[in-house]
Amino acid sequence: MASAILGRLKARLGGGRRFRRPDVARERPRWARERPPWLRLLVQKLPLVLAVVAFGVALAVAGWLFLSSDDTLARRAAMVPYLVVDVTAPGDATGPGRPIAKPGEDGAAKPVATPAEATPAKPDGETSGKPSAPPHDAPHEAPHEAPQDAPKDQTAAPPGPPPPQMRADGTVVLTPAPVPEITEDTPDGPLPRISSDGRQPWRTYARPFPGPDQGPRLAIVISDLGLSGAVTSNALAKLPGVVTLAFLPYADRLDSWVDAARRQGHEILLALPMESTERTYDPGPRTLRVGLPAASNIERLEWALSRVAGYVGVTSLSGSRFMTETSSVQPVIDVLKKRGLMLFDSRVAGNSVGAAIAAERKLPWAMANLIIDADPSRGTIDAQLRKLEDIALAEGAAIGIGQPYPSTIERVAQWLPTVTDRKLVMAPVSAIVGRQKLP
């Protein structure tokens, strides 16, 4: 009876398969028995293959980081907003509640200017964002001497300029802007103009430069400032006044930034938005373009010129397309000459015609010899600065232009004190006018 019940139970559970004897070996499937040798070898070596691949990937990433880390960090830092804070020391030698001073151009202590200090106090009831006209107690003219061997295609400045006036902190005093005699009021804002007695804005607003020729001249221009408050503050905090700064017309609080820069002795250029050869790059609204009529480009140019006062001329780091077209550049040069400004040709395009047309139309001009941070890694910037020194020694003058990358500001600030070791003289861009030859 028990045997019968047990037999039925085994049948219901699958014919006794669950009670199969453990000593009976199962037959492997055919695909497992007939595995090709290469597949068996791959399965055996798979851990080693994966380890080699992982090591190769790690090595490639490490190599890329080693070669591009400076560039990557510089570009990332330029995009990440940060805040520059003035640290005050109560009872410090600079006085209670004043920022701790930074070294000036001559080694003297130089307090850091801030945009808050640059914004003039407004009278009650005044709502305009434009600063009120300051008193004109400083001389309006800051001409530069004309070298005897200057090329004939340049507009020479009158000889014998007065020595620059200095503040107690060592900064050079610039003529306060705007100067009514060289300012034309328009619906868009103030435009520069030549005064009735012949004064030109590019000379009046220039940073004074000593008359005697002390050796080959070097100038540095940092362009495209104003859009980022943190980046602009970093440039103003770390760069001495001998460095020329170029501001974009779209900047918020442009009056305050330019005033702060000029208080520290920086000569100012206006960075115009111009059409680029890179179709994916948009310089912004009111860009000067090759396909537009001359009247439209002039209207856009005068809008940009009316954004602020106190600059000596214009430049552009975006005009690789516009500055190569003679028919587009000529009307711009004519407006600049009419308004007493200078042109600084950044030569972002090797075939730029800006300097050549300016020389032909007798417009004061200067041009960049090098873009110092096309590759913003620290080593490359250092190499470009050394190359710039060699050009200045060989040709008598040289200008480098760059953008306000953290690496650019850092390397330029550290390089500037070494310039005198090679008997070179740092100068503003306006002091290079008349000292370069056309390429």
Task: Describe the model.
The chain is of the alpha/beta class and 439 residues long. It has a domain at 138-432: Glycoside hydrolase/deacetylase (TIM Barrel, Alpha-Beta Barrel). The chain has 12 helices and 13 strands. Strands 5, 6, 7, 8, 9, 10, 11, 12 and 13 form a 9-stranded parallel β-sheet that branches. A two-stranded antiparallel sheet has the order 1-2. Strand 1 and strand 2 (109-110) form a beta hairpin. The chain is elongated and about 135 Å long. The N and C termini lie far apart (116 Å).
Radius of gyration: 33 Å
Strand composition percent: 5-15%
The mean pLDDT is 79
**Number of distinct beta strands:** 13
What is the name of the CATH class of the domain at 138-432? Alpha Beta
CATH third-tier fold name of the domain at 138-432: TIM Barrel
Q: What are the secondary-structure elements, in order, as H or E? A: HHHEEHEEHEHEHEHEHEHEEHEHE
Number of helical regions: 12
Question: Which class best fits the helix and strand makeup?
Answer: alpha/beta
CATH superfamily of the domain at 138-432: Glycoside hydrolase/deacetylase
Q: In CATH terms, what is the architecture of the domain at 138-432?
A: Alpha-Beta Barrel
Tell me about the largest β-sheet: 9 strands, parallel
DSSP helix fraction: 25-40%
Please tell me what the overall shape is. Answer: elongated
